[in-house]
DNA sequence: AGGACTTTCAACCGGTTGGTTGACTGGCTC
DNA sequence: GAGCCAGTCAACCAACCGGTTGAAAGTCCT
């Protein structure tokens, strides 16, 4: 196992319950019980989710007195952003290049170009 | 199942092979065979990955002549960004607020006071 | 029509996941 | 030290995932 960091982060955030926990933790730290309170599932299930988030580095649990706190670890956002923005930038750049090529072709060759497109799903 | 869009997107990107496909598709469209070429796995396995990406809306396959092309669908990046940045912003704002409170406490009350807790409703 | 190639479906397998229940530990407070 | 409460571990289960193989459609070109 020990999947790479990004895989773990994305996988951790692929669950709605876990995303909700993260959203709530962004507002403020919480204990396991506070975290579990809104959900229907058992406390143990929440704890398991927590361990997934912790394993992905999305969350940390500084040791402390009885009601241990859970804290959001915001660096993972940077990791995701880096990957996402890289892909996005490359794609956009490519589209720009493609447009350039197309318009260049349009200028030089005045032949017809019936290009019908209807994307969108 | 029809899990919500974000869950599907995150889950799709949680696999290294799939992320690699996306990275390569950001550079340019490809056919399934071209996509599959670098990997050890069977063509069918690649196809399955493709369907996951397609199901998440990360990728589209406009109908066309025999070697069908696979195209990256960049809108999903916006969806992820929106979620990520919202969480990040809230967390940062909260830390800023916390810092303000702490420094304020440091200034006004130079004596007693160990009121340190960060709980949440 | 035949043949090659691409695409897709289906069944199967081992490992992981999300959830359950039950039991156990660790600290605090009487 | 008894008891409670928060947190944790372990076993189990059904469902899902990533991969395989085998077979069936399409689709294109002679």
Low-confidence stretches of chain A: 111-121
Order of helices and strands of chain A: HHEHHEEH
Number of strands of chain A: 3
Beta-strand fraction estimate of chain A: 5-15%
Q: Tally the helices of chain A: what do you get? A: 5
* Largest sheet features of chain A: 3 strands, antiparallel
Q: Describe the strand arrangement of the main beta sheet of chain A, using strand numbers.
A: 1-3-2
Overall shape of chain A: elongated
Q: Structural class from helices and strands of chain A?
A: mainly alpha
What would you say this structure looks like, in words?
2 copies of one chain form a homodimer. Chain A is mainly alpha-helical and 121 residues long. Chain A is 60% helix and 7% strand. The first copy, chain A, contains 5 helices and 3 strands; from the N terminus they run ααβααββα. A 3-stranded antiparallel sheet of chain A has the order 1-3-2. In chain A, a hairpin with an 8-residue loop joins strand 2 (59-60) and strand 3 (69-72). The longest helix of chain A has 34 residues, at 75-108. At the A-B interface, helix 1, helix 2, strand 1 and helix 5 of A face helix 1, helix 2 and helix 5 of B. Chain B binds a DNA duplex (30 and 30 nucleotides) through residues 1, 15, 17, 31-33, 41-45, 47-49, 51-52, 65-68.
